[in-house]
Write a structure and sequence with these properties.
Helix content is 24%, strand content 36%. It is of the alpha+beta class. It starts with 8 loop residues before the first strand and ends in a 5-residue tail after the last helix.
Length: 172
């Protein structure tokens, strides 16, 4: 069986001990492979400084680029610049270690030939996005914002008559 090489991996066996600079380009193909919803396009450069040592390696990830997502206000595409960095320790697990990754420690088995960083890239892209993804003030689709404003106005005008009695509750 031929093992398929991952596009987003660090080849451990071919790297000598020392500092290595790696660069990955993340494109729309990455979104499709990871099934990331509500992301239209991605243009990110991930620069990795990988320091290989005998038992414990360090990995410094720096991401910079743009992500295109639907605007939360008008649903038109909005381009958001993202910048994120993270440092991790890659440790070769011994038999006594529990084989679970913690926040900044990635455990690998001693016979692994490469480190798959796909999930690390995926998490960092999502964490770099702001909670509210909207256009700058006045840049949203005017037809959609007018429709939302009109719907909000109609909703405010139609008040359930049962609540009218409660308006005067404080005046008693």
């Amino acid at each position: 069986m031929v093992e398929q090489q991952n596009k987003y991996s660090i080849p451990l066996q071919s790297l000598s001990e020392g500092v290595h600079n790696l660069e990955f380009t993340i494109t729309k193909e990455f979104i499709e492979l990871q099934n990331i919803e509500n992301m239209l396009n991605v243009e990110i450069t991930a620069k990795i400084i990988f320091t290989k040592r005998a038992q414990v390696h360090t990995l410094e990830l720096n991401m910079n680029g743009k992500v295109e997502v639907p605007c939360d206000r008008c649903l038109e595409p909005v381009s958001i610049a993202i910048k994120n960095s993270q440092e991790c320790i890659v440790k070769i697990a011994s038999e006594n270690d529990e084989f679970t990754d913690t926040e900044n420690v990635i455990l690998i088995e001693s016979h692994e030939k490469e480190i798959d960083i796909t999930h690390l890239l995926y998490e960092n892209i999502l964490l770099a996005l702001p909670l509210k993804k909207v256009h700058a003030q006045g840049k949203c689709n005017t037809a959609m914002t007018a429709y939302i404003g009109e719907a909000h106005k109609i909703k405010q005008e139609t008040i359930d008559p049962r609540w009218d009695l409660l308006r005067n509750i404080n005046s008693n």
